[in-house]
Fold Small ribosomal subunit protein uS2.
Amino acid sequence: MPHFTLRQLLEAGVHFGHHTRRWNPKMSTFLFGVRNQVHIIDLQQTVPLLDRALHAVRDTVANGGRVLFVGTKRTAAEIVADTAKRCGQYYVNHRWLGGMLTNWKTITNSIKRLRQIEETLDGDTAGLTKKEVLQLTREREKLERSLGGIKEMGGLPDILFIIDTNKEKLAVQEANKLGIPVIAILDSNSDPAGITYPVPGNDDALRSINLYCELVAGAVLDGISAELGASGQDFGASEELPPEVMMETVEETAEIPA
C-alpha cells in the first residue's frame, strides 16, 4: 500500500479550505478552525479517512474491479487522465455526460461509433471527400474528449474516485442510483452526502490533487499485484508485464552500477 504522512499532506496544502463565506455547514465536523478567514481542514481526520479510501481502491482492484477517476475541472483534468492511464484504469476529465453510468447502453453505442470512425480514418480514406474526412475527424475529436477515457472500460466501474463533488454532482448522483461506491475529496464548501469514502482536503491546489492521484494510483497498482499473486500468474511467462512490475524493474535496473 502507498505510504503517506501528515507532513506530506501539510506540504501539499491539503489543510487549506475556502474562505469562511464559501463553506458548507455539513462539513463542520471535518474542520479544525479558521485562520485569516480561511477554513482549516482537520488533517487528523483526513489521514485515517484517506487510508481507508486507499484500502477500498486496493481491495476493489484486487478483486478484479475497475476504478473510474473523475475530475473535469481545469486544474485536475490533465493529472486525472495521466494518472488513470499510468495505472491502467479509466477516467472522465472533459465533461460528465448525463447518463454516463445510468444509461450505459447509449454510452456503449457512442463508443462503438467512435471505434467505427477510428477504423475509417486509420484505413483507406481514398473514397471519401475532404469534407467527409474533416467531418469525421471533428466527430472523432468530440467523442474522444468525452469518451476516450472509458472506451476500453467494457462495463460499469466498481468504484469512483472524484475530485470536487460540487462540479461532479451528476457523477455522484448516478453512482448513488446504481449503488457504486464513491471516494471523494471534500473541500470546506463540499457536500458529504452520498459519499461512501469521504476524504476531507483541498480540492483546488495542484500539489494536493497530484498527491491524491499518486496515492490512488499506488493503491491500484498494489491491487493489481495482489490479484496477480492470488491467481498465481507467472510474470516470466507473460507477454507483457503489469505496469507496477515494469516500474519496479526499471528502478532496480537503474540502481545497478555499470
Remarks:
- The domain at 103-154 is CATH 1.10.287 (Helix Hairpins).
- The helical segments are 6-11, 43-62, 74-86, 104-122, 130-147, 169-178, 206-231, 243-255.
- Strands lie at 16-19, 31-35, 38-41, 67-70, 90-92, 159-163, 182-186, 197-200.
